[in-house]
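chain below, 423 aa
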Amino acid sequence: MHKFTKEVWPNGLRAIYVPMTGTQTVTLLVLVGTGSRYETKDINGISHFLEHMFFKGTVKRPGKSDIAHELDAVGAAYNAFTDKELTGYWVKVDSKHADLAFDVVSDIFLNSTIPAQEIEKERGVIIGEIDMYEDTPMRKIGDLFEELLYGDQPAGWDIAGRKEVIRSLQRQDFLDYLSRYYKSENVTVAVAGNIDLGEAKAKVEKYFKQVREGQTEKPLPCQETQSQPQIKVAYKDTDQCHLVIGARAYNMFDPRRWALGLLATILGGGMSSRLFIRIRDELGLGYYIRASSSLSTDHGYFDVSAGVDTARIHEAAEAIMAELRKIKENGVAEKELQKAKDYIKGGTLLGLESSDEVASFFGLQEVLTRDVLTVEQKFSMMDKVSPADIKEVAEDIFQDKNLNLAVIGPLKDRDKFEEILKF
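prediction:
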């Protein structure tokens, strides 16, 4: 399995190297430990906006299309992403073009000029992206659910931000944010693929030694207060309803996270999961149904999301609640638990055949927790989970005081949901 080497440079920059056999590609992923959790209300959306601006020109590549032309010329895959607690920039190339990948990513990361005229143009692009999410209820429902859980604090705000803020951000705001968070001790460089360890180290030293030095402050802790079920219904004239039923759970450092992930897999991972069989196969209530656990550094939740026939939305909510009650009351058999473990292991191994997934697997752990587990270590932790652990977690989180429901669809009445939403 993949072995990694971790290195901390004198300036605090962290690097993870994962040489791989059996691939011709190399992925370079640069991660910064900042995202929308680190924003204040007056700059909400700047993490994501800045990610866009990094592709708008550097001193060496001043044209806004120069970067794309250069990477497209070698058939590279490349992109960037912003989350609540991290931002990432990556390029995946044929290994013979590794130097180009390092040169381009380090250039945008260290030398972006953030041109004022491009900020003006990109406002429209970001607002278009926000509108796209608004018009995609299957995507929007997750944001609505987090807004319900966390309210008016960074954990409850959209990553893309609010339109009025996007319209008001100025170039100096970007420069201030850059100097505050894009600093060496907050940066992780992950290199994975067909590359020699010594060669990879030399490239990181050559291309990233100029990262701004310094430490960064942590965001304010997430505040959680809830004593009874919460419901949020957003009216939208859609052909079906999208809902998320979920419960407050654990953060990514909690030892119960392994059992939580397996609980989510048993309930809604794959086409033979309990919820898929019940909601889709037996009741024919909708096309998609899934369960997952979402973990942050100081909070987390379990959720079930589904798109269902509007006329049968209450039946669907009741059927989902019935499955949650059932696992809370009766637990799971060893055989079903083992199947969930093998499902997760198989999916993990399939993903880790590609260098970009390997870079993400190791890099994301390092930037968020500063503690990297190998695949074998993760599997070992999962193997220790017993049916009793699953039942214990279900009993702990499936309580009325943790329960939340968000719905998007042509509905205005929430009274029926109040009757359904109880354990």
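The chain has a mean pLDDT of 96. The longest strand covers residues 286-295.
thats it, cya
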